[in-house]
Design goal:
rod-shaped, mainly alpha
Length: 98
């Protein structure tokens, strides 16, 4: 029973570590998006040519869309982690009954 409990705890630790890494990635890409937006604004405020800042704005739209897709994927991954945790809890309960 100790091995099973240790294995269960290790699996939960791995899932929690993965969730933490996904949260950090989510925050990183969100910050990256905001930093890029701020750089474009700063360029416009510094008097850069409109042609240049318009191109940056276009690239930002694409970049932001990719970040949205990545964040959606991160959300789905976190849901999968939740499902795995529930499954592990179910298995642990079943093994303690038997």
């Amino acid at each position: 029973m100790t091995y099973d409990n240790d294995s269960y705890q290790r699996q939960n630790q791995l899932l929690e570590h993965l969730r933490s890494q996904l949260d950090a990635l989510n925050q990183y890409v969100d910050t990256s998006r905001e930093n890029y937006r701020n750089q474009i604004r700063a360029s416009a405020n510094q008097g850069f040519m409109t042609d240049y800042t318009d191109k940056l704005e276009g690239k930002f739209v694409v970049f932001s869309s990719l970040i949205d897709k990545l964040q959606d994927s991160i959300g789905r991954s976190k849901n999968m982690i939740d499902n795995h945790e529930h499954h592990l809890d179910d298995l642990r309960r079943q093994s303690s009954v038997e």
